[in-house]
Amino acid sequence: MAEDRHSPYDLEVLRSSELFPKKEFVCDDGPLPEITTAMHGESFLFCSRCGKDNSQFVLLSTYRLIVLLPSQWFIVVPVGMLLSVEAPDTLTLVVKFKDSRHCSIQFSSGDRCTLWQSRLLSAISVPSQVQDFFAFAFHAWLIDTNELLSQQSPDSLSWFYGESARLGFQNHPLWRSSDGNFEFDICHSYPRLTIVPASMKEDDVRRVAKHRSQGRYPAIVWRHRGNGAVLARCSQPLVGLLGYQRCIEDEKLIEEIAKAVVLDRALATGVINRTDVGAAVEDTSINLRSALGEAKAALVAPPTMLVVDMRTYTAAMANRGRGGGTECKDYYPCIDAVFHKVPNIHAVAQSFDGLSSLCQHQTTNSLSWLSQLENTQWLNYLSGLLESAVHIAHTLCVEARPVLVHCSDGWDRTAQATALTQLLVDPFYRTFEGFTILVKREWLAFGHKFASRCGHAAHTEPSPIFVQWLDAAHQLMRQFPMAFEYNETFLIKLATHVYSHLFGNFLCNREKDRIDHTMKAKTLDIWVVLNKDRKDFINYLYNKQHNDVIVPKFGVQHLTLWTRMYMQPVRQVMPGGTNVMEGPNLLSPAAVTTPGPEHDSNPFEVAMRASLQVSSKPNSLLECLQVQQRNKDSVRSDHRSSLSPPPVTGDAESSSQQQQQQ
């Protein structure tokens, strides 16, 4: 009988998890204490005793750093949240987190302290390839449990089609969907589909892209359904050192946006008909008399546009040295340009460093603490950002004029301004569904550099731009507690997982990179988890009838420090322990006491338990209930039905105070 031989071309079927095998576990001081079970795809790497008397434990895994303290206290934080590891002396390590907090770990010997500093520094180093992030291993092990096959979010372009219909762009004679960038060959950091004036051809858009920094041409992101005003975003024009370089197509695009808005309003009010619109679209002149005639043109407001440059005038002029600059009134006669003086990423990073340093010394009884907070400029920068959004919202809703927003490259301050403005003017974005779409479009699809800003890439310019925007949204929620469907915890969860490495949404700089790395197929989508546990993020004060434009008070005196985000204590107590501090804030205790084997855990519950900052200070009735009846579903259901929101009277400020007291 012939010997059975295998061909070198034989195929072997592998499970997804086999691509991410568990790593070797090194326990320096005997067996691991029973303080946790591994998440899907998580490997424990090192464990040692720590503390002056070796009564504590420190555990490092591919996802978490866990420190078991005396009296059933513990610290748990995702490795992606670690910012730096310093040794102020030979027996102490100070681990700083990216959310402004820190913890100290003491050791009984200098050698052990040095060893753990090396281990932690290695853990926080950026992987050589994106597939080495924990999100890929987590997803691969979940796939083998068949628990994700029908849970992922819809097609990545579904938000575009839905928003185009909702905002009235579909089948509109003045606007069209441009697919010229579907293969990202016009702009690598833009979405595949954008909205542009119907009169602009694809070749025109390509020429405009060449005149804008990073190819980020003016694209429409929002439309006022009542008056037709639109909000657009882009990057700075490349006018050159002397400011003389021009692009006829770019000038035409700006004029066509302004013209389309006034024609849209005239069409809606019956001043003109679709035949007139067709003639006006074909007419290349911004003067509407030739297309509409003297009588009708007299009834149509002259096309104008507000261009908001988020930089200072000095910074805009300085960018000419690199070929950039700003729009010249002589070449763009229909615009009014303003400079909003919002600080750049470096100033924001420096301000946040000062805030982090201040929050790390919050236990110090300093009479100058508020003065030191003022010196960080954090609240001042928030004030300027809110003021910009209010100005843009007023132009759109009251003046009924289109607004074009840009900074230098159009992916930091521009995203902050456009996204914050839309929270003010459109109540849809103050719902769960709307907020999800807002982040997907303004931050993810339009190319905010999450990998660079959050430290996920080798060459980074870290700056908490997205967290600063969430802070601004939090200020709105404080002033208008009945206007938002979601609560503060929802924002904190999102801010946490920007850094956690648990989801693939924030590991890349642009949509093209996420597609190239097949993030949708190989990592878990954060919106799947957040939407599944939406009940945990409900704001019980939310009033669906609160659908007006909101105008916040943006003065520094009306803003407060986001203490639940920046100043929650790091330590928390295990179940059964005595909580003598402010309580749990990093992990739900269930996350480190979940019994049973790995495959018995619900992946979505594990993912949410592994998130940071579940505060013991409840932000909603549901959170109150969860604190009292955690993991008792039947009892919790009975109690929830008997609870009702507290009465709210007075203005927004008093309502906010009642919410905080509740």
Description:
The chain is α/β, with parallel strands linked by helices. 37% of the residues lie in helices and 12% in strands. It has 24 helices and 16 strands. The chain has helices at 110-124, 134-143, 158-166, 202-210, 248-268, 274-282, 289-298, 313-318, 345-360, 369-376, 378-397, 413-425, 432-445, 450-453, 465-479, 488-497, 511-516, 519-522, 526-532, 563-566, 603-609, 621-628, 633-642, 652-661, and strands at 26-27, 44-50, 56-61, 64-68, 73-78, 82-89, 92-97, 102-106, 175-178, 194-197, 219-223, 230-233, 305-309, 335-339, 403-406, 572-573. It has a six-stranded mixed β-sheet, with no helix packed on it. Helix 12 packs antiparallel against helix 13 (432-445) and helix 12 packs parallel to helix 15 (465-479). It starts with 25 loop residues before the first strand and ends with a helix.
Q: Could you give a short description of this structure?
A:
The chain is α/β, with parallel strands linked by helices and 662 residues long. Helices cover 37% and strands 12% of the residues.
